[in-house]
C-alpha cells in the first residue's frame, strides 16, 4: 500500500540506484587559484555560501579547500590568512567522481575516502561538485553509509 501511495504522490520518482550525480551536483563552483590568499578564498566561500572552493591552475583542477582546512590549518594554528596561499592549505590528492555515477557510488566513495566533497569531472574537466549533504538531502537513508559499520 505504501509503495502504491508513493507512486501516486511522487509519480516521477526513480529507484534510488538510478539517481545520478549529474542530477544533484552543483554546477556553479567557487574557483580560486593556487596564489589566492587564504583570506580571499574564505571571503569568496562565505559570500557564495559554500563550504569548499576548487583550486585551479590553467583551467586544470589541482586542489580543494574546505571549511575544515580553514579551521585546522589556519585558525587552529594561528596562521596569518593574508599571507597563506591556497596552495599552502589545499588538499591536492583529489578524490573525484564522474557525473554519470550513481549517488550511491558517490556516497560509498565519500565514506571510503573519508571526505565530504567530491569534485565532479568529465574527461578531466571540472563540471561541478557534490557533497555528502547534497546527497543526504535526496537520499537520507544513505546516512548509514556515512556512519560506517556498527561495532
Short description:
The chain has helices at 2-9, 21-24, 38-48, 67-75, 86-89, 103-113, 132-138, 143-147; strands spanning 31-32, 52-57, 60-66, 117-122, 125-131.
3D architecture notes:
This protein is of the alpha+beta class. The chain has one domain (19-147): CBS-domain, CATH 3.10.580.10. 39% of the residues lie in helices and 19% in strands. The protein has helices at residues 2-9, 21-24, 38-48, 67-75, 86-89, 103-113, 132-138, 143-147, and strands at residues 31-32, 52-57, 60-66, 117-122, 125-131. A 3-stranded mixed sheet has the order 1-2-3. Strands 4-5 form a two-stranded antiparallel ribbon. A hairpin with a 2-residue loop joins strand 4 (117-122) and strand 5. It is globular and about 45 Å long. Mean pLDDT is 87; it is low at 1-11.
Q: Approximately how much helix is present in the residues? A: 25-40%
Which strand order do you get reading across the main beta sheet?
1-2-3
Percent strand:
15-25%
| Element-by-element helix/strand order | HHEHEEHHHEEHH
Structural class: alpha+beta
- The tally of domains stands at 1
Q: Could you say what the CATH architecture is?
A: Roll
- Taking all Cα atoms into account, the compactness measure Rg is 18 Å
Low-pLDDT segments: 1-11
The CATH class designation is: Alpha Beta
The dominant shape is: globular
Structure annotation, total helices: 8
Distance between the termini: 35 Å
Mean pLDDT: 87
CATH level 3 topology: CBS-domain
Q: Would you count the extended β strands for me?
A: 5
Give the biggest sheet: 3 strands, mixed
- CATH superfamily heading: CBS-domain
